[in-house]
Amino acid sequence: xxxxxxxxxxxxxxxxxxxxxxxxxxxxxxxxxxxxxxxxxxxxxxxxxxxxxxxxxxxxxxxxxxxxxxxxxxxxxxxxxxxxxxxxxx
Length: 90
Prior knowledge:
By secondary structure, the protein is mostly helical. It has helices at about 1-15, 15-40, 45-55, 60-70, 75-90. It is elongated.
């Protein structure tokens, strides 16, 4: 049963790649905005609050990459990217 569920999630991630990326970006932005609001309420200026939130959240690009790895679609995405790259130079 777990295998079927995992395969279903993999298929969904592959077929709805853009939506998954959009959802991931929106979620990370929401977390960052919430942290900025918390920092402002704590007495920081807007600039200080944004900087502190970015330090706390860390590298957004790295976190996105880790999330993509957890979805299990990295192999297929890399393979498709390699095929497109190879087709351009033929």
